[in-house]
Design a protein that fits this description.
seven-stranded mixed β-sheet; globular; single chain; mainly beta
C-alpha cells in the first residue's frame, strides 16, 4: 500500500521560508518521478514542481521559479520542497504525488497516481 505523508507546513510571514517534506512508503521510491502541487480554496489543484527519479532534472511552475527548490533523498524515500521568499499568494494546501509511468515531468494532476493528505501553508503578516 502506497503512502505519502507530507509535513513542514505552517504559518509564515511574507518573505519567510518553509521546507516541506514528503515521506513515501509502499513503493520503490527511486523509480518514480515525484511532484508537488498546491490547491488554494475554491481553486484547482496546480503543479508547483517536479523531479525525476535521479534528481538530475527538475521543473517548476513559473511563479515559483527562483524561490522554490525541489529535491529528493532516495535513501530516505523522501522528497522536499524548499520555499523561500514566500508570498501571500503561495497560501494553499500543498500535496506531494507520485507520477505515473510517463516520460519526463508532467504538470497534469491526472498523470499522478498517488497523493499525500496535504499540508497547509499560510503566508500572512
Amino acid at each position: 500500500q502506497v503512502q505519502l505523508v507530507e509535513s513542514g507546513g505552517g504559518l509564515v510571514q511574507p518573505g519567510g521560508s518553509l521546507r516541506l517534506s514528503c515521506a513515501a512508503s509502499g513503493l520503490t521510491f527511486s523509480t518514480y518521478t515525484m511532484g508537488w502541487f498546491r490547491q488554494a480554496p475554491g481553486q484547482e489543484r496546480i503543479f508547483v514542481a517536479g523531479i525525476i527519479q535521479t534528481g538530475g532534472i527538475t521543473y517548476y511552475e513559473d511563479s515559483v521559479k527562483g524561490r522554490f527548490t525541489i529535491s529528493r533523498d532516495n535513501a530516505k524515500n523522501t522528497v522536499y520542497l524548499q520555499m523561500n521568499n514566500l508570498k501571500p499568494e503561495d497560501t494553499a494546501v500543498y500535496y506531494c504525488a507520485v507520477q505515473k509511468n510517463v516520460v519526463g515531468i508532467t504538470t497534469t494532476p491526472t498523470e499522478y497516481d498517488y497523493w499525500g493528505q496535504g499540508t497547509q501553508v499560510t503566508v500572512s503578516s
